[in-house]
Amino acid sequence: MRKDLEEGKITLPLIYLLQDTGTEETEEIVKILKSDTMTETDLAYVLHLFHQHNTIEKSFNKAKELLNEAKSELDRFEDSMAKQSLLTIADYVVTRKK
Fold it and tell me: What angle (nearest 5°) sits at the alpha carbon of residue 64, between those of residues 62 and 82?
């Protein structure tokens, strides 16, 4: 997440955060994202807001919800190595740590 913020990537956690913060916090986040350089203080502020608003948990819950939907679509296929590989990859994507 830190790298995404530093690169200015708009991710689901950031979208949720912008939805959950008040006007003043939202304006500060946008200002930070639009700046050419992000200081450690800026980064710490945004990360603090992520934790304060439970944004990470909300994002993981959404990811798990989408994962379960995707996996249920595979139920129509017979068991095979390809199906098992897709299920394994899907689980990995949600549980991996960077």
Answer: 135
Q: Which of 7, 6, 15, 2 is nearest to 97 (CA)?
A: 2
DSSP code per residue over 23-63:
HHHHHHHHHHHHSSS--HHHHHHHHHHHHHTTHHHHHHHHH
Tokens in use for 15?
């979208």
Say what the pTM is: 0.78
List the domain boundaries for the chain: 2-55, 58-95
Handedness of CA 64, 21, 42, 34 (dihedral sign): positive
- Residue 75: CA atoms inside 13 Å, Cβ hemisphere, count? 6
Q: What is the mean pLDDT of residues 46-74?
A: 94
